[in-house]
Amino acid sequence: MALENVVLPRTGIGIDVHAFAADDDPQPLWLGGLYWEGEQGLSGHSDGDCVAHAAADALFSACGIGDLGTHFGTDRPEYAGASGVTLLSEAARIVRAAGFEIGNVAVQFVANRPKFGPRREESQRVLSEAAGAPVSVTATTSDGLGFTGRGEGISAVATALVYAVSGHEVPPAEPGPAKGAPHA
């Protein structure tokens, strides 16, 4: 088989971090596509769902078509308060319109709370439906270290596997922003 006939997968990485909202500006907690009643929410331009945001960012990274800020940045008022599930669904649509299909997305978030295990399958179902592909989610703590360990916020990292759909012109990957540059 000639190499030009092989469809090679592409991988991407996405990271998202949100601080917990201030006590004087309480927000609902949306995480992994789910509402967490009674939990302090995260601050952000949208709903602060760093699990869904990292998943969307990983999809954009894998395709070389920008990042979360490129597509849903703070300069886009129509995304103010948008749900992470909506952003992930729209990211999947953009990725497919660019000539890719999604193999899978894996996300791990770092936080002391909420207790994720009992709702893992529910979260994975909601996010997989939004992406139109399998999304797995795992959780861990940082053993009391850093901002997540101090309970100041939540971080998430995601990987995505995509592949070009036969017959589509695939754009070359573009370099990301300079180190330390804001992503919006």
List keywords for this structure.
184 residues; 5 helices; four-stranded mixed beta sheet; two-stranded antiparallel sheet; alpha+beta; single chain
Q: Which strand order does the major sheet show?
A: 1-6-4-5
Mean pLDDT: 89
What general outline do the C-alpha atoms trace? globular
Sheet-strand content, in percent, reads 25-35%
* Total beta strands: 6
Helix content: 25-40%
Distance between the termini: 43 Å
Tally the helices. 5
The value of Rg in angstroms is 17 Å
Q: Which series of helices and strands comes N to C? A: EEEHHHEHEHE
What is the multimeric organization of the chains shown? Answer: single chain
- Spans of at least 5 consecutive residues with low confidence: 176-184
Largest sheet: 4 strands, mixed
Tell me the structural class: alpha+beta
Question: What do you see in this structure?
Answer:
The longest helix has 14 residues, at about 50-65. Helix 1 runs parallel beside helix 3 (about 85-95) and helix 3 (about 85-95) packs parallel to helix 4. The strands form two sheets. Strands 1-6-4-5 form a four-stranded mixed beta sheet. A two-stranded antiparallel sheet has the order 2-3. It is globular and about 55 Å long. Mean pLDDT is about 90; it is low at about 175-184. Strand 2 and strand 3 form a beta hairpin. With about 180 residues, the protein is α+β, with helices and mostly antiparallel strands. It contains five helices and six strands. The protein has helices at about 50-65, 70, 85-95, 120-130, 145-150; strands at about 10-20, 30, 35-40, 100-110, 135-140, 155-165. The chain starts with 8 loop residues before the first strand and ends in a 20-residue tail after the last strand.
